[in-house]
Write a structure and sequence with these properties.
The protein is α/β, with parallel strands linked by helices. The protein has two domains: 119 residues, Rossmann fold (3-Layer(aba) Sandwich); 125 residues, Hypothetical Protein Tm841, Chain: A,domain 3. It is built from eleven helices and 13 strands. The strands form three sheets. A six-stranded mixed sheet has the order 10-9-8-13-11-12. Helix 1 links the parallel strand 1 and strand 2. Helix 3 packs across helix 4 and helix 5 runs antiparallel to helix 6. The longest helix has 16 residues. The protein is globular. The two termini are 29 Å apart.
């Protein structure tokens, strides 16, 4: 039986070299600065994106891939091997219509015997990406669709260690996540919100602290409550500045039982709403 093929979208924030090594096919969401349209993780480097984001007076818009774009990818993979099952894993459906586009595209496929499974990651950034990487690793080892989907669901259930530390409230306010008055007061008081994800992928503020260092201490405290002395993989994500991510990594590795550290970058779609200076940590049990 042919090995399972894995498809995802650019919001998984999987480094390009990892996608290439594991044979992951990526479909890009788009970022629009005025009349200019860019493919996430393809047309703009993170440095270019965050530079433009900081210089822009208006928040760029983002858009999901169309069903036609998904259909083209599915048909291309099926043309290469009509017997290979496809698992397509995407950004939480509560955050984007990307999952819906993939589902519609699946219904449009006319290749006889095509086996396509569309999965809602119920997560974002590397909370989503970790599931895709796991799926691709299992696919390379010859695992079945059912085995891979079950493992991804378990990863979702264990996905309690996801925290974003936002440097400024401006982008959450511009994106409609918080009110203008809350953003203004928070900025004046140097309040740093700590964001996480609900089980379905909804972004939620789990805590806040005055100043970055206190916010990092709070994140470490929350992680220790969740994991104790469990053996963990830590993934550190940055935007345009290494300072806070590096210190956050040092604090987490000093206080928890970290067996491996990996790195990634928060891409342009997620970064549009969290803003420059954002740091994130993702922890997974070994």
């Amino acid at each position: 039986m042919s090995k399972v093929r894995i498809v995802t979208d650019s919001t998984a924030d999987i480094p390009a070299e990892v996608r290439e090594e594991l044979g992951i096919t990526m479909i890009s969401l788009k970022v629009l600065f005025g009349e200019e349209t860019y493919r996430d993780a393809v047309d703009l480097t993170p440095e270019e994106f965050y530079s433009r984001l900081k210089a822009s007076t208006a928040l760029p818009k983002t858009s999901q891939p169309s069903p036609a774009e998904f259909l083209e990818v599915y048909e291309q993979l099926l043309a290469e091997d009509p017997t290979a099952p496809i698992i397509s894993v995407h950004l939480a459906s509560v955050l984007s219509g990307t999952y819906q586009s993939a589902t519609i595209a699946k219904s449009m496929v006319e290749v006889e015997g095509a086996d396509i499974t569309v999965v809602d990651s119920c997560s974002a950034s590397y909370g989503h990406g970790a599931q895709v990487v796991l799926a691709a690793q299992m696919a390379q080892s010859g695992a079945s669709v059912d085995e891979i989907v079950a493992a991804m669901k378990q990863c979702q259930n264990d996905n309690t260690g996801v925290y974003f530390l936002v440097d400024t409230l401006d982008y959450l306010q511009k994106g409609g996540r918080i009110g203008k008055a809350s953003a203004m007061i928070g900025s004046l008081l140097n309040i740093k919100p700590i964001l996480s994800l609900e089980p379905n992928g909804t972004v939620t503020a789990v805590d806040k602290a005055r100043g970055t260092k206190k916010a990092m201490s709070k994140i470490v405290e929350l992680l220790k409550q969740s994991y104790g002395n469990d053996e963990l993989i830590l993934v550190v994500a940055k935007t345009d500045d290494d300072t806070t991510p590096n210190e956050l990594e040092q604090r987490v590795t000093a206080e928890l039982n970290i067996k491996e550290v990996r790195y990634t970058t928060v891409g342009s779609v997620i970064g549009t709403y969290t803003g420059p200076g954002t740091s994130a940590v993702f922890l997974f049990k070994v």
